[in-house]
Amino acid sequence: MLNKLLKPFDYIAGEKALGIGLILSLITSLVANTQEAHFNGLVNLKFIPQKTPNWIYYIEPFINVIVFSFFLSIIAIILKKKFRIVDLFGTQLLARSPLLIMSLVLLFSGVNYETSMELLKSITENPNDISGIIPFIVMGILSLPFLIYMLYLMYHAFSVSVNASGTKAIILFIIGFIVSELTLQLLYTQIYPML
């Protein structure tokens, strides 16, 4: 059982990973939507100032995975590895499953768009009163292990999908991650104002 949690993509890939990842992404998006929280990046959780249509919550995971998979595909080509795009995309989508737990932590911690805006206002008006920040600290502490696990799963998904390992693969994965995150931030700054 522990091995399946640590190396899930040794057991599941392709269409099956894609199907399960799709279902978990939609459930995560539903929970995020109730809190007005956007997963608008590879590891980002943000409350953005403008209101967005509900459908954006449901496409953010796919935008994130498409961009990341695009750059990981380039890395696989650089490494001269053969791979199936469905394996890469499906495992990357499923690797984001810890976001469901993180969004549930968000839901039960009472942190949402309104409370985050109230906190910002409170800090601005009275910077010495930190009592309002406690739910955010708790949420961050509870979410951190799942974030770390998700990052591990993302690398494991890449490693298994393209059969790459070693220092060169790790370095290129990190570069791909950073380039993807920067691309996503630029992309979302263009998308949100149009909604």
Describe this entry's structure for a reader.
There is one protein chain. With 195 residues, this protein is mostly helical. It has one domain. Helix content is 72%, strand content 0%. The chain has eight helices and no strands. Helix 2 crosses helix 3 and helix 3 packs antiparallel against helix 8. The longest helix is centred in the last third of the chain and has 29 residues. It is globular and about 55 Å long. The relative contact order is 0.18.
- What characteristic shape results from the CA principal axes? globular
The secondary structure category is mainly alpha
Please tally the β strands and state the result: 0
Name the quaternary structure: single chain
Radius of gyration in whole Å, from Cα? Answer: 18 Å
Helical stretch tally: 8
Poorly predicted residue ranges: none
Helix-strand sequence = HHHHHHHH
Overall mean pLDDT score? 91
Strand content is under 5%
Distance between the termini: 44 Å
Biggest beta sheet attributes: none
How many separate structural domains? Answer: 1
Instruction: Specify the helix fraction band.
Output: over 70%
Write out key terms for the chains shown.
mainly alpha, 0% strand, 195 residues, globular
Question: What's the structural blueprint in terms of helices and strands?
Answer:
Elements: H1 2-6, H2 14-35, H3 55-78, H4 85-95, H5 98-109, H6 113-125, H7 134-162, H8 167-191
Q: How do you describe this structure in short?
A:
The protein contains 8 helices and no strands. By secondary structure, the protein is mainly α.
